[in-house]
Write a structure and sequence with these properties.
Elements lengths: L8 H12 L6 E5 L5 H10 L5 E6 L4 H6 L5 E5 L2 H10 L5 E6 L5 H11 L3 E10 L12 H12 L3 E7 L2 E6 L8 H21 L3 H13 L10 H14 L1 H5 L5 H16 L16 H24 L5
Parallel strand pairs: 1-2, 1-4, 2-3, 4-5
Antiparallel strand pairs: 5-7, 6-7
Helix pairs in contact: 1-2, 4-5, 5-6, 5-12, 6-7, 7-9, 8-9, 9-12, 11-12
Length: 312
């Protein structure tokens, strides 16, 4: 992976191919400029075809400006919301390819989709980055997963293709917006899955033993128990039978360290107050986004706790 672009080599190749499909005179919009790596790929794939490339970021890097200085990429130093408002006000052309890779909070991914998808052409493509595979790093970008899984559950993406951390497809009807309740239902299905596992198999220590053995062997793909499942199973197990779970650890110091952090985190939970959200019609998304962000912190702690069970 090139750290300056935050993209895997395979992802760079896929983005080049997707951009190559944009017709002459078409439009590419990127949410999240960062270091300019993906915009550079889009430019190299489309130069000499009169294609407009717009990249939005609240804090584009100096590296991006330098990297894209001699290209036709328009870096817009503004928020996604402001960019979408101006796109509508200025009557800009419909979008052929929309790449969403900005902030990864549930609220921001939710807003990026709802604001920008109406500008897609009927045959235009949308692509989300950091839709992590279920059996590899699934705990890293929980907000992206909930938004995209909601779209998939509702059938909003036609013929979705999930490769590496990219998921791409066409929007079935870009007049349909996601709601907070859509995302709540998706979040609930994640938790319900783990509850079913825990209720149907009381032998949680055996489940964890099998998972730990798999991970110590370097196996990352397991459809039965994913990394996300394992985090929640440990969380559940610590509450109902801590001693049984504790006996599995191979690093007691790390276990105590991260268990205490987890306890402090759970003690500090509170509902964030709404602020700077006058532009939102659906203000409940702010509360849900806060909940998911806190949940991501919990998952990070639990994933570190899991490492205390392994000889790595």
């Amino acid at each position: 992976m090139d750290n300056s672009s935050q993209l895997w080599v395979e992802e760079k190749e896929l983005l080049f191919d997707y951009a190559s499909l944009v017709p002459k005179g078409g439009v590419i919009v990127e949410i999240g400029t960062a270091q300019g790596g993906s915009s550079e790929i889009f430019y190299n794939a489309t130069k000499d075809r009169e294609i407009e490339i717009w990249s939005y970021d609240i804090a584009p890097s100096l590296e991006a400006y330098e990297k894209l200085r001699h290209t036709m990429v328009f870096i817009e130093h503004k928020s996604s919301e402001q960019g979408a408002f101006e796109w509508l006000q200025n009557g800009k052309k419909p979008i052929d390819f929309l790449f969403i890779d900005g902030s990864h909070t549930l609220k921001d991914v939710f807003i990026d989709y709802n604001l920008w998808s109406p500008f897609l052409k009927p045959d235009g493509m949308i692509c989300f980055h950091d839709y992590d595979p279920p059996t590899k790093c699934e705990t890293v970008h929980l907000g992206v997963r909930i938004v995209v899984d909601s779209m998939l559950r509702l059938g909003l993406i036609e013929n979705p293709v999930h490769q590496y951390r990219l998921i791409t497809g066409k929007i079935r009807d870009n007049s349909i917006k996601l709601s907070t309740n859509d995302c709540k239902e998706t979040f609930k299905t994640i938790l319900d899955r783990v509850i079913r596992i825990c209720e149907n198999d009381k032998n949680l220590d055996k489940i964890l033993k099998d998972y730990i053995k798999m991970r110590e062997m370097g196996v990352k793909c397991n459809e039965q128990i994913t990394d996300l499942d394992a985090c929640y199973i440990i969380n559940f197990g610590l509450k109902i039978n801590r001693e049984s779970i504790f006996q599995l650890t191979k690093n007691k110091r790390k276990f105590f360290e991260w268990e205490e952090v987890l306890q402090m985190f759970e003690h500090s939970l509170y509902d964030n107050q709404l602020k700077d959200t006058d532009y939102l019609e659906d203000k409940e998304i702010v509360k849900l986004s806060s909940q998911v962000s806190l949940e991501q912190v919990r998952l990070k702690i639990l994933s570190m706790l899991i490492k205390s069970f392994m000889m790595l």
